[in-house]
Amino acid sequence: MLAEAAAVRGIAQRDGFDARRPRFALLALTGVFVALAVLFMTYDLKGSLSYALEFRARKLGGLALVGFAVAYSSVLFHTVTHNRILTPSLMGFDALYQLIQTSAAFFFGTFAVLQLDERIRFGIEIAIMLAFATVLYRTLFGRDDRDLYVLVLVGIVMGLMFSSLTSLVSRLIDPNEFIALQDRLFADFSRINQDLLVVSSAIILAVVAVSWRLLPRLDVVALGREHSTNLGVDHQRIVNEVLVVIALLVSVSTALVGPVTFLGLLVANLSYQVTGTFRHRYTVPAAVLLGMSALIGGQFILQEVLASSTRLSVVVSFVGGLYFIALLWREARTARA
Amino acid sequence: MTSGATTPRTTSGSGLPAEAGFVVAALAVLVVAAAASLFVGVSAVSPRGLIEGDDHQWRVFWESRIPRLAAILLAGSAMSVAGLIMQSLVRNRFVAPSTAGTVEAASLGLLIATVWFGSTSVIGKMVIAVAFALLGTAFFLSLVQRLRFADIVLVPLAGIVFGGVIQAATTFFAFQWDLLQSLNAWTQGDFSGTLRGRYELLYVVGALMLVGYLYADRFTLVGMGREFAMNLGVRYERVLYGGLALAATITAVVVVVVGAIPFIGLIVPNLVTMALGDHLRRVLPATAIGGALFVLLCDILSRTIRYPYEVPVGTVVSVLGGVIFVVLILRSRVGAR
After folding, report:
1. Which residue in the set A160, A309, A328 is minimally distant from B318, CB to CB?
2. What average pLDDT does this structure show over A106-128?
3. Preferred mutation among B145, B154, B307, B337 to probe A, highest tally of A CBs within 10 A
4. Are B160 and A156 inside 8 Å of each other by CB?
5. Could A325 and B147 be called an inter-chain contact, meaning their C-beta atoms sit closer than 8 Å?
6. What CATH number does the domain containing B260 carry?
7. What is the C-alpha to C-alpha distance for residues B47 and B35, in angstroms, rounded to an integer?
8. Half-sphere exposure in the Cβ direction for B83 (13 Å, CA)
9. In sequence order, which residues have a C-beta less than 8 Å from that of residue B1 and are 6 or more positions away?
């Protein structure tokens, strides 16, 4: 008995979790993020100082919010779907959000949509989004025997389909009305939807406040349905809560800048590598820092170093796409070798 | 379409084979739809007007309606045949020009040709687009061959993402050269600009389809694997690369003349082979007719859905095609289990 207990304790100690590496990683990532933010704010300031600072602060805020939302939702999505490749945007969630926006304008009239208070509109859209995302998730992940590649392919094709449906619906709207709508609905990194910054920050703060306590339980959920039920964690309930969180975050980031397909995949996987653990207390903050730094740094390089007006999302999908192919490659080798 | 499918398959000898029934039925529908399509459009053209000898109506008829119909039939059938050939060569039902990076590579070539040669030289554009399509397809093939234990779904997944990476690069260059709007116009297949004198290049793909028909049996053998094909005296490499080059060339020419029509090369061959079996030379004519019919019906829909405006046919096709594709993927796994 005693020997056994000692052995168990010994194993526990040997496999004991060493928090030094993830802590150091978080510290370093915070440093990088702060440095990039300062650089972004102060580099080559000209003209009216207060105007320039305010302008940049808003842009910085938008980039940081999007990076935050995408990274947070991707790590959570990885956990509840038990794989490291699927992300909300790969499942077509952000294309779905745009489709909802456009369809609302089509069915209720552009004028009604434009006149509606921004916050109410956002709220309604998020509610519809949540309903659809839940149905989508339930039909696709409800069965355990679904193959990973099938899911990814279905997700990508649905994303493509949602965006062609969006462009179809937007063609059905009167072309003159559509121009009025376009600025409102299709934001990108160069013209972040400023009106939504405050609402988005509030949503993200609320999401973090509510879901922070969930993170340790997500470590258990990551073990799978049976294990987590055995360990006394209500798997179903947590997955439901996480889905709400994901739908909120995807809506926030898509409303601000539109779809950014591979960012979540990139930063979530990088964060697992950097922190060397799967504990959400570390991987989630690390992914968030990486996401914000990637967007701020990327925008800075595009804007100041390359002096290019190219959209950041284009660069993200180029780099992220290459990374995705590399990931598939490795996955296919290890899974079947 | 179902009448052919329900006819019991008979071996040569007594009665007509199933393919013949299908071909006759589809051909009849095609002729009716084609005749109807000649009288759908903003400018009023009616059979009575033509009989009465209305000059204006005859001009619209010859300059716009007939060329448009010819372009639809050629592009729809050729893209479907290209998809069918690729599927049988790579031995994967989900491989088609739009899931192998071929379409995106051709668009990149088109963009570069426009920058180098301006918008005048159609032949120059075609040559460069074909060259890029060949390169892109060759790269995809080497990707597929490296994935030794390639999952049936993994191959198109890698292809779609590979296409996405090329597309991101294309968007980047288009942005730098201020050609983004033209790029969008090319990548969305659209027959509304098809006039006499602007589509004749498409007859090339008609000729290429015939070549494909002549080589169909050799493609089938190559699809059965290297050893098998070599034993039967087929030059494996030559036929494999030749067949893929044929498909890539068809794709590039269609992209140059009318723009990309997504998913068509994927879903039409799948639906046809589901009904009629896999015998390449026998299903090839049926696939050509089915593809022409599918695109024609989508084009009639895109002309009427937002009358008097037109919706690009590529949008309509990709919404319908996306739905069918998702159903096919989900079915493929159910059947395999």
Report:
1. A160
2. 76
3. B154
4. yes
5. no
6. 1.10.3470.10
7. 10
8. 34
9. B22, B25, B26, B29, B271, B275, B290
Judged by CB atoms closer than 8 Å, whether chains meet at A156 and B157 is answered as yes
Give domain status of residue A42, yes or no: no
Report yes or no on B124 lying in a domain: yes
Helices and strands, counts by H and E, chain A: 15, 0
Q: Smallest Cα–Cα separation from A185: which of A115, A250, A254?
A: A254
* Domain count for chain B: 1
Q: How far apart are CA B267 and CA B156, in angstroms?
A: 13
The answer to whether residue A194 is domain-embedded is yes
Residues of B in contact with A318 (CB under 8 A): 165, 168-169, 172
- Report chain B residues whose CB lies below 8 A from the CB of A325: 143, 158, 161-162, 165
Torsion of CA B35, B38, B41, B47, to 10 degrees: -90
Residue B291 included in any domain? yes
Is residue B218 in some structural domain? yes
Tokens of A100: 């909802």
Q: Kindly state the average pLDDT of the residues B270-291.
A: 89
CA B315 to CA A169: how far, in whole Å? 10
Nearest to B161 among A311, A325, A337 (CB): A325
- Give the span between the Cα atoms of B275 and B8, in whole angstroms: 11
3-state secondary structure of A6: helix
Residue range A241-255, pLDDT digits in tens: 888 888 888 888 888
Phi, psi of A191 (to 5 degrees): -135, 80
Question: Does residue A222 lie within any of the structural domains?
Answer: yes
With DSSP H G I counted as helix, E B as strand and the rest as coil, what are the percentages for chain A, rounded to 5? 80, 0, 20
Residue B218 contacts by C-beta under 8 Å, 6 or more apart in sequence?
Answer: B234, B239
What's B1-47 look like in SS3?
CHHHHHCCCCCCCCCCCHHHHHHHHHHHHHHHHHHHHCCCCCCCCCH
Strand partners, A191: A188
The total of structural domains in chain A comes to: 1
Peptide bond into B308 cis (omega under 30): yes
One-letter amino acid identity for B46?
S
Structural domain that includes position A260: 50-336
Residue B227 has pLDDT above 50, yes or no: yes
Rounded to an integer, the average pLDDT of A38-65 is 86
Distance CA A26, CA A49 (A): 33
| Largest interatomic CA distance in chain B | 66
Domain containing B230 equals 75-336
Report the sign of the C-alpha dihedral through residues A120, A125, A128, A129, in that order.
negative
Helix (H, G, I), strand (E, B) or coil at B260: coil
> Residue B47 CB: number of other CB atoms within 10 A?
11
Residues B73 and B94: their CA atoms lie apart, in Å, by 23
Is the residue at A176 inside a domain? yes
Contact A81, A235 (CB under 8 A): no
- Residue B173 forms part of a structural domain: yes
Q: Which residue has the tokens 């009616």?
A: B46
- At B237-257, the pLDDT tens digits run 899 999 999 999 999 999 988
User: Residue A128 is part of a domain; what is its CATH number?
Assistant: 1.10.3470.10
Q: What is the DSSP string of A228-264?
A: HHHTT--HHHHHHHHHHHHHHHHHHHHHHH---TTHH
- pTM of the predicted model as reported, rounded to 2 decimal places: 0.82
Rounded to the nearest integer, the mean pLDDT of chain B is 84
- Do residues B319 and A168 make contact, with C-beta atoms less than 8 angstroms apart? yes
